[in-house]
Model the fold of this input.
Amino acid sequence: MIVCKFGGSSVADSAQIEKVKNIIKSDERRRAIVVSAPGKRNKEDEKITDLLYKANSEVQKGLSCKETFSIIEKRYLEIAASLKLDKKALSLELDIIRRNIDSGYGADYAASRGEYLSAFLISQYLNFEFVDTQSCIVINQDGTVNPYSYEQIGRIVDSNSDKGYVFPGFYGSTEDGSIKTFTRGGSDITGSVVARSVNAELYENWTDVSGFLSADPRIVEGAKTIDSLSYNEVRELSDYGASVFHEEAIAPLMDTSIPINIKNTNRPEDKGTLITREVKDASLAGVSAKGGLSRIRLRKLMLFKKHGMRHALLTMLHIFGVRPSFSLYGIDSIVWFFDSKMATDSVLSAMCERLKNEFSLDEITVDRGHAILGVVGSSVMSDDSFIKASEALKKESIDVTFLNYGASDLSYAFGIKEEDKERAVKTIYEALF
Ligand code: ASP
Done:
């Protein structure tokens, strides 16, 4: 059986959903389908999931979500009308959802309804069974998938028949049964969960690009498609900002050998990128950069003489909601980088004040506007790309704020200023690819 996940742009309107049907009908092994909520139809358009979050926050603020919800309603009704589906049943569902959002069911419930309605319509259109993931995927408190989910889906899907199934992506339930979503873009994770549960021969992830590219095409014109990647290379590329496949979606497949094929719904004939457990092509895979980081720098003479100091400092950071993603340690200093969204300026200044007093620091400063650029590929530790990349950055006068070399055998990274991000990606691409 082939599991197919279709992203938001692949189900954005009835014309896209027709393409989905053609893809499904062209191979009878494509029997388990995971769908996202309708995404943007053009640059100015709004994603259904964003509108659902908006409707929920309006209700939380005591405002009416009527106007926002009517945009959502219109989108689904239009899709149902053009696909000649039962509009009455859809209207009933929409009524229930609006009432529930209005009565404060919360953000997870509201956001999940985008995928729910998508699967509700597409299952009718394909004449496949609708399987509500609220009753079969359990998401642990830390956002990981509870293994019980695999057994549950395995029981529902009949591998020996020719029956088809449609699963809404992005959500499941907590252990006590209430709806919980994955993080944004999480339908990729649902696809992996279903693929693992049915022991799929292939997991096809259908999107609007023909696979992973060796650099962001908005930055590097003509960046090449990567033919093959390993599970671990995908995790690293996604972590450095490549947004084709959710970085947590590899986890459910990690101890399987199920291949993943990233495919383009608008160009189904393109081969896309094949992702396998083991490395197939030992070369450089890609360069990617992610911005939106802030930096904390602190100094204290004899900092590490005091046992447990690092741990105590980190605990204090966590209390203020700051969880660093990169750290550097010097004899009398520490530098941490973290996602800027984790704390406002006022939270950060309160945090610095507290750290300074409580740990008698000599100095502590915070600044924003940092980025990290990663070069990924199974050859990075054996080729001379690191030297070439460093020289290229120097030649372009791009300052490096930190280095991460040796933490993984599949990648290395440079800390750079956010304003240099695009220039740095271009420079590294030209030097190495
Ligand atoms: N609809 C959700 C989002 O926009 C999940 C997904 O598309 O995978 O994040």
